[in-house]
Amino acid sequence: MKKMNTIHTVLGERIHHIPKHKSKKLFAPTNIALCKYWGKRDTELNLPITSSLSIALTGKGTETTLNLIENDHDEIVLNGRAIASTSHFYQRLCDFLNLFRNKSTRFHINFVSNIPIAAGLASSASGFSSVILALNDLYDWKLSLQELSILARLGSGSACRSLWDGFVEWKMGEASDGLDSYGQPLPYCWPELCIGLLIVNQNEKPISSREAMERTKITSSLYTLWPEKVNESLLVTKKALENQDFSLLGQTAESNAMTMHAMMLSAWPPIIYFQPETINAMQQIWKLRQQGLEIYFTQDAGPNLKLLFLQNDVEIIKSQFPSMEILQPFLFKF
Ligand code: PMV
Predict the structure, then answer these.
(1) Is 223 helix (H, G, I), strand (E, B) or coil?
(2) Mean pLDDT of the chain
(3) Atom number, ligand 1, closest to the C-alpha of residue 36
(4) What is the end-to-end Cα distance of the chain in Å, rounded?
């Protein structure tokens, strides 16, 4: 199995470490892609067809603790509620944990998350990256963040970008074993940058990003245009970050996200993550932009939008979207 080969290579003799009783509480932020990851060249190793670039929502994410338990099954608790062993999330997490533990080891996993789950706010990214941080502590592997990023990717692709605050690029890599495919923090800081989390609908998504990505890749005739689009978005985004050119950053992020959704609309059967409220919000944003306000959005595999704007416009944007939570990732204080 390819995943086991990756783990053997990254862990080396550490694969034999004995776990201690309990890990520390470990936190990983969620991240929002400005240049999206959409499509895998290797579905088992979650190796992407393109690189991608994200910003961490510092302070918003998942805190995880792993406890060894004497039990015949794992116990998973999310925000105080036990997760049913029949759920997809439970299965997916156990499959991930099985890669690292011996057959008789069972865990009690406690997740405390301050983001809406499965609403396209990358909860799986911070979930898997915080689990890998907790495993690193429990087994005393002392791995680097780069090595942990490779392991987190095996759980969820975008998790490999959730080990740092700030802007992170996931370098797609070229190797078939994926050892050169991991997140790398970028040296840009933008204190005035604001992100608004516009939750229009908290329901679970109708189709997972994993399935939607694969269906888009296989059935959308537009998919062949995607790698070039992302490569251009990456170049322009880095230029915008370098020059703190907000219009360029916003336009590039919004156009990148809309291209991803356009491909999904042209997949078969078509995939649509927009809800009526999503479109209403988009139209409101476009109208404000026509009136001269610098406001843009990005959207992932869910109906909610993440708005991008600068600190100077916070008051006017609050008056337009009163219930929206506003974050300033570079000014977050723990
Ligand atoms: O890592 P996954 O399988 O949850 O996929 C993430 C997909 C997007 O959020 C839509 C894009 C991205 O780059 O985060």
Answers:
(1) helix
(2) 95
(3) 13
(4) 40
Burial of 181 per CB tally in 10 Å (0-12, 13-18, 19+)? buried
Ligand 1 neighbour 126 (Cβ under 6 A): no
Q: What is the pLDDT of residue 141?
A: 98
Q: 204 pLDDT band (50/70/90 cuts)? A: low
**Best of 31, 34, 36 for a ligand 1 pocket test (most atoms within 8 Å of beta carbon):** 36
Separation CA 176–CA 295 (nearest Å): 40
Beta strands 75-78; 106-113: pairing state: parallel
Which of the four pLDDT bands, split at 50, 70 and 90, describes residue 8? very high
| Residues 324, 198 contacting (CB under 8 angstroms) | yes
Contact in structure between 306 and 297 (CB atoms under 8 Å): yes
Whether the CB-CB separation of 63 and 26 falls below 8 Å is answered with yes
Nearest CA owner, ligand 1 atom 9: 300
How far is the C-alpha of 308 from the C-alpha of 232, rounded, in Å? 20
Quick one: which atom of ligand 1 is closest to the CA of 35? 13
Amino acid at 1: M
Other Cβ atoms closer than 10 A to 126: 32
